Amino acid sequence: MKSPTIDRRRFLLGSGVLAALGVVGGVTTVTWEDLTSAAHERPRAIGDGVVVIVTMYGGNDGINTVIPYADNAYHDNRPELAYAPQDVLHLDDRLGLNPAMTGLAKQWQNGSLAIVRGVGYPEPDHSHFRSMDIWQTARPQSAVHTGWIGRWLDATGDDPLRAVCVGPVLPMLAIGETTTAAALSTSGQGLATSAVGTLTSLGADQSGDSPAEAMVCSSYRAEKTMTSTFGPLLAGTQKHTASGTQGAKGRGGSSLADQLATVATCVKAGVPTKVYSVSISGFDTHADERETQQRLLGQLDSALSGFLTEMAADPRGRDVVVMAYSEFGRRVKANASEGTDHGTAGPVLVAGAPVHGGFYGDEPSLTDLDDGDLKVTTDFRDVYAELIDRALGGDPTPAVGPGRKPIGFL
């Protein structure tokens, strides 16, 4: 069958780069050839910190994640949704983890899991899109087109391999004014030979190209180089993940376990990346929450605890700090469908060998509420600032603004 006609303009628009960037010039970019050269010529030194960001899309119910099992208000507001005290993985005499989180409970016992409580931002928004935008841009007061990791990239030089998003979709957190993190797809599905030839021709430079169009072409050529170079490295990551643990997908289409297997391979190989972004979806539990959330938390727990155990046994892996967050928590009171509706504050999990385990931040009251919502006790930008300062070794001000307070988990 004859292949469909593809013209150059359709190729460039179909790449999504022009629309995503919203610019026609002034864009700084790098090729995958540059990235592979960096990986071979200057591997990350042992002791140089790495941050892995886990985004839990959908608004995870923090109250049934870090459970206030000894609080009567918890049981009164959730008569069918609450966990009985004997079913909770006790952390102390008041709080415990969801029963699906046995691996992270062991990390807590080992002193390498920190739980930052009541995390959120001023004047919370119940919209998934706006709230996630706030978390990823770290700008609660105004809408901006750069993310906090993107601004960190802008402020710290032009080494392109410093941040990698596992999957073909770049989250807002990774986009800077002049520098953007790389998107690394691990699907393993290539194009037909005939299609590769067509796209190679369309991706050739032309004298009239704008800077943005030239970037699309450069990125396509570079991606081919990256695939041939890193393909063998990444091809084995699937074997780390048993078929029974694939579960929910991230925004890029692969399971969290697969994404973290890719990160583990890169870390152990010495790839000089400082920040990795991975994700898991499905936490918008308005109905029948208990079974759905427990399944998702089990997948999160299995993927994270396996990754952390692997990292703890590797010299370079011991430099890794993982942060898991969601765009908001849920309301205290269960709804009529045995689910929970969009809320505000929630816990942030931070884990890894460099972490000082324990509770940080005040536990929000279940009775002193803001129109049914938990009151924020910890600003999320303080978490980010500590990661940049103590894990990445940089000034957090360009990324999250001035005046942030250290929390102490690193």
Description:
By secondary structure, this protein is of the alpha/beta class. The protein has a single domain, classed as Alkaline Phosphatase, subunit A. It is 35% helix and 13% strand. The chain is built from 13 helices and twelve strands. The protein has helices spanning 8-14, 17-21, 32-41, 72-77, 102-109, 128-137, 148-155, 193-202, 211-235, 256-269, 289-312, 380-391, 397-400; strands at residues 50-56, 66-67, 89-90, 96-97, 113-120, 163-166, 182-184, 275-280, 320-326, 346-351, 358-360, 378-379. The strands form two sheets. Strands 1, 5, 6, 7, 8, 9, 10, 11 and 12 form a nine-stranded mixed beta sheet that branches. It has a three-stranded antiparallel beta sheet with strand order 2-4-3. β3 and β4 form a beta hairpin. α3 (32-41) crosses α9. The chain starts with 7 loop residues before the first helix and ends in a 10-residue tail after the last helix. Mean pLDDT is 83; it is low at 1-32, 188-192, 222-230 and 238-245. InterPro entries: DUF1501, TAT_signal.
Give helix % range.
25-40%
Q: Indicate the overall shape.
A: globular
CATH architectural designation: 3-Layer(aba) Sandwich
CATH topology: Alkaline Phosphatase, subunit A
Q: Give unreliable regions as ranges.
A: 1-32, 188-192, 222-230, 238-245
InterPro entries: DUF1501 (IPR010869), TAT_signal (IPR006311)
Pfam families: DUF1501
